[in-house]
């Protein structure tokens, strides 16, 4: 079950944060979808994540970060994914030139979960 809370930012905006698991999960995944709001973690990857003991959260993170982005994304330019990767202290960028906003989950989503497990 996903828990939802609201975080008030210093500039007055409110960010909705989500958490899909318990604090003792083997691995926690930070999920950011949109700005300034975060979206609920991706339903298509939940079964694979659960098999790997992965918890999804949104909010602030100071850990290894994998940014994967579709080069054909018509909703969010891939330049934003590149910018985000450059501004996270320990980030790796996977740009998938032939994928769009959602298809990138199908082409590399499970591989991304395995990347995270390898760093746990």
Key phrases:
two-stranded antiparallel ribbon, alpha/beta, 120 residues, two-stranded parallel ribbon
List strands and helices in order, with pairings.
Layout: E1 3-8, E2 14-19, E3 27-30, H1 46-51, E4 54-57, E5 65-70, H2 78-87, E6 91-96, H3 103-118
Parallel strand pairs: 3-4, 5-6
Antiparallel strand pairs: 1-2
Task: Describe the protein in words.
This protein is α/β, with parallel strands linked by helices and about 120 residues long. It has one domain (about 5-120). About 25% of the residues lie in helices and about 25% in strands. Strands 1-2 form a two-stranded antiparallel ribbon. It has a two-stranded parallel ribbon with strand order 3-4. A two-stranded parallel ribbon has the order 5-6. The longest helix has 16 residues, at about 105-120.
How many distinct beta strands?
Answer: 6
Backbone shape: globular
The description of the largest β-sheet is: 2 strands, antiparallel
Number of folding domains?
1
Mean pLDDT: 76
- Which bin fits the share of residues in helices? 25-40%
| Contiguous helical run count | 3
Low-confidence stretches at least 5 residues in length (pLDDT < 50)? Answer: none
| Strand percent estimate | 25-35%
**Secondary-structure content class:** alpha/beta
Write down the secondary-structure element order: EEEHEEHEH
Enumerate the strands of the largest sheet in spatial order, edge to edge or round the barrel. Answer: 1-2
Radius of gyration: 14 Å
Distance between the termini: 23 Å
